[in-house]
Amino acid sequence: MNLKIAVLPGDGIGPEVIAQAKKALYAIGEVYNHEFVFEEALIGAIAIDKTGKPLPEQTLNLCLNTDAVLFGAIGDPKYDNNPNAKVRPEQGLLKLRKELGLFANIRPIKPYKSLIEASPLKREIIEGADFTIFRELTGGAYFGEKFLNEEGTCASDLCEYSEEEITRIAHLAFKSAQNRRKKLTMVDKANVLETSRLWRKVVQKVGEEYKDVALDFLFVDNAAMQLILNPKQFDVILTENLFGDILSDEASVITGSIGLLASASLGEKNALFEPIHGSYPQAKGKNIANPIASILSAAMLLEHFGLFKEANVIYKAVEKAIEFKVVTVDLKADSKFGTNEVGEFVSNFI
Amino acid sequence: MNLKIAVLPGDGIGPEVIAQAKKALYAIGEVYNHEFVFEEALIGAIAIDKTGKPLPEQTLNLCLNTDAVLFGAIGDPKYDNNPNAKVRPEQGLLKLRKELGLFANIRPIKPYKSLIEASPLKREIIEGADFTIFRELTGGAYFGEKFLNEEGTCASDLCEYSEEEITRIAHLAFKSAQNRRKKLTMVDKANVLETSRLWRKVVQKVGEEYKDVALDFLFVDNAAMQLILNPKQFDVILTENLFGDILSDEASVITGSIGLLASASLGEKNALFEPIHGSYPQAKGKNIANPIASILSAAMLLEHFGLFKEANVIYKAVEKAIEFKVVTVDLKADSKFGTNEVGEFVSNFI
Ligand SMILES: CC(C)[C@H](C(=O)O)[C@@H](O)C(=O)O
Ligand SMILES: CC(C)[C@H](C(=O)O)[C@@H](O)C(=O)O
């Protein structure tokens, strides 16, 4: 197979971890005879520094005209603590998601057997947990109208959803549930929010086409609790953009480290693969960032193109790295292995 | 002291748990020579059933003219799964919060020594955790304009905040931090939301008056993770309405049961005390609901009126109940004690 892949390393640890994902893909290409052509482009704080824009035209055009996007991370503290900044790295990622129409963000959560002890949760709580979060990615408060009055004393964000936006991701989530344990949990705040009530109504309706899937509903406050009390109850979780952001980061504690979690963002035509962690600026350039999430996002990319065998080889290689404790310090405080060494181990194993 | 207390049992387990809180207050009144006069009123689903309104005028008037409100719980599944219901129990509580101007909801989180094992989190993670969440309670998406188009295919919720709304709760949170470990963590999503940026700016400004308090910021997704990874890092958490709803329910897992957590909702003139748990309809009338959260909300009421010694007696009594395992099934699966027995134990101990 020939694939043209746009590579957007971004900020912080982005470039370091993405280098390891590329290594893994090169190795797969060699062994299984695929040609992966990578083309790099700027996004985020580094793009602002170099071009003034968080998502330069050139980057967007590249992404629109490749088979897939491999994304690192974005964000920089110099913007976070400046509420007056007009241009911010995150705008680059949000715009990219919107322009590529990446409405479904899929985040699988499953602890590794040999890492059960790394979680702050007790073994009996997490052993056997295995679920996927479907987070809507191009709607809600992230993209609704924003307002700040002239005096800077009043602000608002509008959370908007349409039936269509809910329907398309609901189908994906139900289909996924059909291929899993046939349970879908919709998370919302329907006792307070109008948008949540629309979600509930539309998902109920879509659910009629998937009679084999058991559908239930949880309020988001309760869901935040249930994820920790009893994560095994979940199979597929479906939710809107902001709730999905919060709950998927929270759910990462089940695996012991957010550095292990990858995600796929899918649209009608385009697909982007990224770790769920951020740019972790404190670790930048220190060779301590965990590259596994980025490597796994490459595996999700392969799966997306039907290369299941190849994806599996990466999953196995990552499992081996974890089993042999070739991991970064987030997983083993006294580890002598860095970002590079973990990446090397994985690609050598392929 | 003479106190006139409005009692709003509400729905589900509300009436059962509030009966135990009243018992505790009666006992305190007898021993310490205070007169607590209780007056009951309707709110929530039961108020809709009886009057058509979730917050009848009479209830509101009573609450406006008492020293404090003791609140049970509201909510009923018959409304949750009906996205078309025009009147809902929650509207009663939201309206009450708004009309009484209860802008600050204070939720203390601290595990009991003898209950450390009841938490899904490991002992070393939670032992020593002790923090308080300040949740803004009368603004944000809960109260912003709601919209549903005629066809029912498009909905929105507006999240709005003003400098004034942020300032007043920020002062309370900073003052609380001054009396604690002098650390305030503001939780927001300032990399995406305009309202969050306003929060960040205003809280920074208010912080200048509290130089002895260390102020830091966390994005809400990261905060949802940090609460579980390392809850000991927190002292006072300050956040907006919806984030506070999610994070405080999540944080309840630290204590092993949401049935242990009480909250105070304060305004300029009024004060309301309630468990953070909901109406738990499945448990209604079964004498299995944990009354401790409701009893502790009565203790918070006493503290609010400066009756610290009396409040402490309740805290001690609750600790004893827990130590002697006189607890409900949420804390001890094979417990023979019910709501009533736990309440009796506590009030007898006073
Ligand atoms: C960087 C930020 C805008 C982003 C989000 O909130 O979507 C990130 O937290 C994520 O989850 O991908
Ligand atoms: C019942 C509901 C409206 C309420 C809220 O979301 O505020 C509850 O969850 C709470 O936290 O007090």
Automatic annotation (TrEMBL), chains A, B:
Keywords: Amino-acid biosynthesis, Branched-chain amino acid biosynthesis, Cytoplasm, Leucine biosynthesis, Magnesium, Manganese, Metal-binding, NAD, Oxidoreductase. Catalyzes the oxidation of 3-carboxy-2-hydroxy-4-methylpentanoate (3-isopropylmalate) to 3-carboxy-4-methyl-2-oxopentanoate. The product decarboxylates to 4-methyl-2 oxopentanoate. Residues 4-346 form the Isopropylmalate dehydrogenase-like domain. Belongs to the isocitrate and isopropylmalate dehydrogenases family. LeuB type 1 subfamily. The record marks Y142, K189 as: Important for catalysis. It catalyses: (2R,3S)-3-isopropylmalate + NAD(+) = 4-methyl-2-oxopentanoate + CO2 + NADH. It is found in: Cytoplasm. Pathway: Amino-acid biosynthesis; L-leucine biosynthesis; L-leucine from 3-methyl-2-oxobutanoate: step 3/4. Homodimer. InterPro entries: IsoCit/isopropylmalate_DH_CS (IPR019818), IsoPropMal-DH-like_dom (IPR024084), Isopropylmalate_DH (IPR004429). This is 3-isopropylmalate dehydrogenase. Its cofactor is Mn(2+); Mg(2+). The keyword Magnesium applies. The keyword Translocase does not apply. The gene is leuB. PANTHER family: 3-ISOPROPYLMALATE DEHYDROGENASE (PTHR42979:SF1). Mg(2+) binds at D221, D245, D249. Substrate binds at R97, R107, R135, D221. Coiled coil: none annotated. Its EC number is 1.1.1.85.
